[in-house]
């Protein structure tokens, strides 16, 4: 990735459905200037499907079309992509990958509220139990790129947001030094300016 041409990094927020990816990603976008991209929304808007999964009662994503659709946004930098998988994204797309994790009892209630059928609910809980998305991410990205973040309570989401904002600031300082000139880029965005380095 030609990170020297990017002013802001690309981030992937992943995790099983129900862990709070859109909520966290929208907060990041509103406080950082990072553009929020929800893969499910992009697929719906562009009808980027190639079938329907009867068992899970959901459309089947056309991954190639999604990658084509996201390429221009990703190339500009400064995007936070929200999706429950990561297996079809090229490794070089993301500077950092954050896997949100939720306790199964909390996750079960969230998914039950969404009306998940028994099969889909069971598969999602199993995926979370065995850390499937975290393990896949660890195998797909270089060491140090993938991080787990707890996503059980609102306070944790605030901590997660602030951690990602601090990481983003450090990335900007390291890769876009002309943008940072002695002031904290995200000082007004992070709860306490003392968190800025």
TrEMBL record:
<keyword id="KW-0418">Kinase</keyword>
<feature type="binding site">
    <location>
        <position position="20"/>
    </location>
    <ligand>
        <name>ATP</name>
    </ligand>
</feature>
<comment type="similarity">
    <text>Belongs to the adenylate kinase family. AK6 subfamily.</text>
</comment>
<dbReference type="InterPro" id="IPR027417">
    <property type="entry name" value="P-loop_NTPase"/>
</dbReference>
<dbReference type="Pfam" id="PF13238">
    <property type="entry name" value="AAA_18"/>
</dbReference>
<dbReference type="GO" id="GO:0016887">
    <property type="term" value="F:ATP hydrolysis activity"/>
</dbReference>
<keyword id="KW-0547">Nucleotide-binding</keyword>
<feature type="region of interest" description="NMPbind">
    <location>
        <begin position="38"/>
        <end position="61"/>
    </location>
</feature>
<protein>
    <recommendedName>
        <fullName>Adenylate kinase isoenzyme 6</fullName>
        <ecNumber>2.7.4.3</ecNumber>
    </recommendedName>
</protein>
<keyword id="KW-0067">ATP-binding</keyword>
<dbReference type="GO" id="GO:0005737">
    <property type="term" value="C:cytoplasm"/>
</dbReference>
<feature type="binding site">
    <location>
        <position position="23"/>
    </location>
    <ligand>
        <name>ATP</name>
    </ligand>
</feature>
<dbReference type="GO" id="GO:0004017">
    <property type="term" value="F:AMP kinase activity"/>
</dbReference>
<feature type="binding site">
    <location>
        <position position="21"/>
    </location>
    <ligand>
        <name>ATP</name>
    </ligand>
</feature>
<comment type="subunit">
    <text>Monomer and homodimer. Interacts with small ribosomal subunit protein uS11. Not a structural component of 43S pre-ribosomes, but transiently interacts with them by binding to uS11. Interacts with COIL (via C-terminus).</text>
</comment>
<dbReference type="GO" id="GO:0006364">
    <property type="term" value="P:rRNA processing"/>
</dbReference>
<dbReference type="GO" id="GO:0042274">
    <property type="term" value="P:ribosomal small subunit biogenesis"/>
</dbReference>
<feature type="region of interest" description="LID">
    <location>
        <begin position="113"/>
        <end position="123"/>
    </location>
</feature>
<dbReference type="GO" id="GO:0005524">
    <property type="term" value="F:ATP binding"/>
</dbReference>
<dbReference type="InterPro" id="IPR020618">
    <property type="entry name" value="Adenyl_kinase_AK6"/>
</dbReference>
<feature type="binding site">
    <location>
        <position position="18"/>
    </location>
    <ligand>
        <name>ATP</name>
    </ligand>
</feature>
<keyword id="KW-0539">Nucleus</keyword>
<keyword id="KW-0808">Transferase</keyword>
<keyword id="KW-0698">rRNA processing</keyword>
<keyword id="KW-0963">Cytoplasm</keyword>
<keyword id="KW-0690">Ribosome biogenesis</keyword>
<comment type="function">
    <text>Broad-specificity nucleoside monophosphate (NMP) kinase that catalyzes the reversible transfer of the terminal phosphate group between nucleoside triphosphates and monophosphates. Has also ATPase activity. Involved in the late cytoplasmic maturation steps of the 40S ribosomal particles, specifically 18S rRNA maturation. While NMP activity is not required for ribosome maturation, ATPase activity is. Associates transiently with small ribosomal subunit protein uS11. ATP hydrolysis breaks the interaction with uS11.</text>
</comment>
<feature type="binding site">
    <location>
        <position position="114"/>
    </location>
    <ligand>
        <name>ATP</name>
    </ligand>
</feature>
<dbReference type="GO" id="GO:0015030">
    <property type="term" value="C:Cajal body"/>
</dbReference>
């Amino acid at each position: 990735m030609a990170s020297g041409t990017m002013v802001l990094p690309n981030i992937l927020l992943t995790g099983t459905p129900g862990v709070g990816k859109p909520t966290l990603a929208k907060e990041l976008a509103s406080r950082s200037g990072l553009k929020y991209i929800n893969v499910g929304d992009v697929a719906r808007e562009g009808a980027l499907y190639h079938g329907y999964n009867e068992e899970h009662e959901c459309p089947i994503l056309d991954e190639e079309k999604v990658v084509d659709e996201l390429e221009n946004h990703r190339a500009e930098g400064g995007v936070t992509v929200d999706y429950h998988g990561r297996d079809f994204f090229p490794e070089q797309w993301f500077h950092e990958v954050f896997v949100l994790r939720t306790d199964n009892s909390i996750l079960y209630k969230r998914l039950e509220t969404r009306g998940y059928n028994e099969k889909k609910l069971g598969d999602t809980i199993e995926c979370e139990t065995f850390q499937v998305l975290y393990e896949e991410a660890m195998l797909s990205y270089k060491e140090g790129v993938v991080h787990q973040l707890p996503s059980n309570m609102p306070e944790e989401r605030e901590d997660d947001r602030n951690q990602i904002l601090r990481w983003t600031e450090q990335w900007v300082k390291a890769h876009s030094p002309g943008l940072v000139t002695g002031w904290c880029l995200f000082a007004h965005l992070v709860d306490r300016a003392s968190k800025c380095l």
